[in-house]
Design a protein that fits this description.
The complex is a heterodimer of chains A (295) and B (229). With 295 residues, chain A is an alpha+beta fold. Chain A folds into 2 domains: 188 residues, no CATH class; 93 residues, Alpha-Beta Plaits. In chain A, helix 2 runs antiparallel to helix 6, helix 2 packs across helix 8 and helix 8 packs antiparallel against helix 9. Chain B is an alpha/beta fold and 229 residues long. The relative contact order of chain B is 0.20. In chain B, a hairpin with a 2-residue loop joins strand 4 and strand 5. In chain B, helix 3 packs across helix 4, helix 4 crosses helix 5 and helix 5 runs parallel beside helix 6. Chain B contains 7 helices and 10 strands. The chains are: A alpha+beta (295), B alpha/beta (229). At the A-B interface, helix 1 and helix 7 of A face helix 2 and helix 3 of B.
C-alpha cells in the first residue's frame, strides 16, 4: 500500500463513521453496554477478592510458650518467630493478659471462675503473609525451642484459599465469556454496516483494490468506534462505581463491605477498557469484512 | 489479449456444465460482441476473465495472466488491466460524479495530482464535464452509464468488458453508448461487449462471437443470426 493512500484511507474511515451514523451509534452503544458489564464484573471481583484477602489475614496462629521457660526467655522466642519468612507479625501476649481476655470472654461462666494466670501459657499471636503456606510455617514454628503448642485453623485458611481460587477462576471464565459475547455482537453490528456498503466494496474489488486497501478504512472505523465506546463506558463506570460506593458507605448495615476507591483502579481500568475497546473494534471489523472480500 | 483454450467450467454445487470446451482468441485492440441466449455461458466467460471464477479445465490467458493458476493476491493486479461496465451501472450513490471516478483511481493507489489531472480529462471524454458535482441519482440512465464507462476507463485498462451496457437504456441512448465504446476502441482499448440487442450488433460491423449451451457456435462477421438470442 502506498504511503500517499494512508491519509486518504484514514479520512475515509472517519468519514464512514458519520456517513453511516445510525450503524456507528448502534456499534458504540453495544460496545458501551458490553464493556460496562465486563468492567462492572471485573471491578466487583477485584473488590471481593480484596475482602476475602483481608478476612484471610484475620486468621491468626497462636504459638504457646513452654510454661517452664522464664519470662525473659519466653519473650526472646518472639525474635526467632519473626525470623520465619512467612511471618508478618508476632505479638507477645503474657499469661496475665491472656487471663484478662479469658475472663472477659467467660465472666458469666462459673466453671472457669477459678482460673489463674499460672494456669495459662505465654503466647504469641502470629499473623502470616500467605495463609496458603500455613502448614509449612506451623512446622517451622514447631521446631523453635521453647514452643510448647501451636493452635492454627488449617481448615479456615484452606477455605479462604479455596474461595479465592474459585473466585479467580470464575471471574476469568466469566470475563472471557462476556468478552466473546461482546466481540460477537460487535462483529455482527460491523457486518450489518458492511452489508450496507457491499456495493462500495464490490466496486473496489472490481477496479482492482487490494484487500488491505479495502479493509483499512473499516478497521480505522472499528478502532475509532471501539475507542469512543471504551471512553464512554469508562466514564459511566466511574460515575456508577462512585455512586455505589457512596450509597454503601451511607448504609450502616453495609459498612462491613469496604470498596477500593475508583482512583486506585484508574490505570488498570483505563488499560483494560482501551485494550477491550481496541480488541472488539479492530478484531470485530477485521473478521467481519472477510466474507465481503471473497469476490 | 484474451485467449480461451478448451475451457470447461462446471458448477459443482448444481452439477451444471456452464462452458463445455470454449476456445477463442481476442487480440489487443479488437472490438468484439459476445452474444447468446440467457444461460448460454456469457456471464461465466466474464467471470473467468475477471478472475471471479477459475476454469475446471482448459486454459484462460488474460493480459499476461494465466487464470487457471493465478494466485489470489494477483487478482487485483489482473483487474487493473480490465475495466468492467455493467447493465445496472453499479455506481456509488453517496459519491459525486467526480468522486465515483476518482474512487477507482484511489483504489489502485494513485496519487492526488494524478487524480486531479486524469479525472476531468476522462469526464470530458465521456461528456460529463459539466456534471462533476452531481450525484448518480441526479443523472439520466445514459449519463449514469457514461459515468460507469468513465470509471472503467480511468485507470487506463488495456481491455474493457461491457456486460449488457445498453440493457437499461432507450434505443437512442443505447446508440450513443455504443458509439462512445467505438470511440474508446479507436484509442486502442480492447472492447468485449456482451449483449442480446441484435439490432445494435447489426449496426456495427464488428466481430461477433455467439455462445450457446456452453459452446462457441459461431465466430466472425456473419452467422450469428442463425441463433435466436
Amino acid at each position: 500500500m502506498k504511503f500517499n493512500n494512508l491519509g486518504y484511507l484514514m479520512k475515509e474511515g472517519f468519514r464512514g463513521i458519520f456517513l453511516h451514523g445510525f450503524m456507528s451509534f448502534a456499534a458504540v452503544c453495544v460496545t458501551v453496554a458490553c464493556l460496562l458489564i465486563v468492567g462492572s464484573f471485573s471491578i466487583l471481583m477485584y473488590n471481593v477478592n480484596i475482602m476475602v484477602e483481608d478476612l484471610n489475614k484475620t486468621n491468626e496462629v497462636l504459638v504457646f510458650i513452654d510454661e517452664t521457660l522464664p519470662d525473659a526467655e519466653a519473650k526472646s522466642v518472639g525474635t526467632k518467630i519473626n525470623q520465619i519468612p512467612n511471618v508478618q507479625n508476632a505479638v507477645f501476649v503474657s499469661r496475665e493478659e491472656a487471663l484478662k481476655a479469658f475472663v472477659a470472654d467467660y465472666q458469666d461462666n462459673e466453671a472457669f471462675s477459678g482460673v489463674q494466670a499460672e494456669d495459662l501459657r505465654h503466647r504469641y499471636v502470629v499473623t502470616l503473609m500467605d495463609n496458603e503456606l500455613i502448614k509449612d510455617t506451623v512446622a517451622q514454628l514447631t521446631g523453635i525451642a521453647g514452643v510448647a503448642k501451636i493452635s492454627a485453623a488449617f481448615e479456615l485458611a484452606e477455605g479462604f484459599t479455596t474461595i479465592q481460587n474459585v473466585l479467580q477462576i470464575a471471574s476469568i471464565a466469566i470475563i472471557i465469556v462476556l468478552l466473546m459475547v461482546s466481540l460477537l455482537i460487535i462483529s455482527n453490528t460491523v457486518k450489518l454496516a458492511m452489508y450496507d456498503r457491499r456495493d462500495e466494496i464490490a466496486v473496489m474489488k472490481m477496479v482492482g483494490a487490494t484487500n488491505g486497501f479495502i479493509r483499512l478504512p473499516f478497521v480505522v472505523e472499528g478502532f475509532t468506534l471501539g475507542m469512543i465506546g471504551a471512553a464512554i463506558a469508562f466514564g459511566l463506570e466511574w460515575l456508577m462505581y462512585d455512586a455505589l460506593v457512596l450509597k454503601i458507605g451511607a448504609e450502616d448495615t453495609l459498612k462491613l463491605f469496604s470498596f477500593v476507591p475508583f482512583t486506585e483502579l484508574l490505570l488498570p481500568m483505563i488499560v483494560t477498557f482501551v485494550a477491550a475497546g481496541l480488541f472488539v473494534g479492530v478484531v470485530g471489523s477485521w473478521t467481519s469484512i472477510r466474507k465481503f472480500l471473497d469476490v | 489479449m484474451i485467449e480461451f483454450t478448451d475451457v470447461v467450467k462446471t458448477y459443482t454445487d448444481v452439477g451444471n456444465d456452464a462452458l463445455r470446451g470454449v476456445s477463442m482468441q481476442i487480440e489487443d485492440g479488437e472490438f468484439v460482441f459476445l452474444v447468446g441466449p440467457s444461460g448460454s455461458g456469457k456471464s461465466t466467460i466474464i467471470k473467468l476473465i475477471t478472475g471471479e471464477l477459475q476454469p475446471t479445465s482448459g486454459t484462460v490467458h488474460v493480459n499476461g495472466y494465466s487464470l487457471e493458476r493465478i494466485r489470489k493476491r494477483e487478482i487485483p493486479y489482473l483487474r487493473r488491466t480490465i475495466g468492467v461496465v455493467f447493465q445496472d451501472f453499479r455506481l456509488i450513490e453517496n459519491k459525486t460524479v467526480y468522486e465515483n471516478v476518482a474512487f477507482a483511481m484511489r483504489a489502485i493507489g494513485a496519487a492526488d495530482n494524478e487524480i486531479h489531472d486524469r479525472v476531468p480529462y476522462i469526464l470530458e471524454l465521456v461528456g460529463l464535464e459539466n456534471k462533476i458535482h452531481r450525484h448518480p441519482n441526479e443523472l439520466s440512465g445514459g449519463e449514469q452509464q457514461r459515468l460507469a464507462i468513465a470509471r472503467a476507463l480511468v485507470n487506463n485498462p488495456s481491455t474493457i468488458i461491457a456486460d449488457e451496457p445498453t440493457g437499461n437504456l432507450d434505443p437512442a441512448r443505447s446508440l450513443e453508448i455504443m458509439e462512445l465504446l467505438q470511440e474508446i476502441n479507436k484509442l486502442g482499448t480492447t472492447l468485449l461487449v456482451v449483449t442480446h440487442q441484435m439490432e445494435l450488433v447489426e449496426q456495427f460491423g464488428n466481430r461477433v462471437i455467439s455462445i450457446d449451451e456452453g459452446l462457441v457456435v459461431s465466430d466472425g462477421m456473419e452467422g450469428y443470426r442463425e441463433y435466436e438470442v
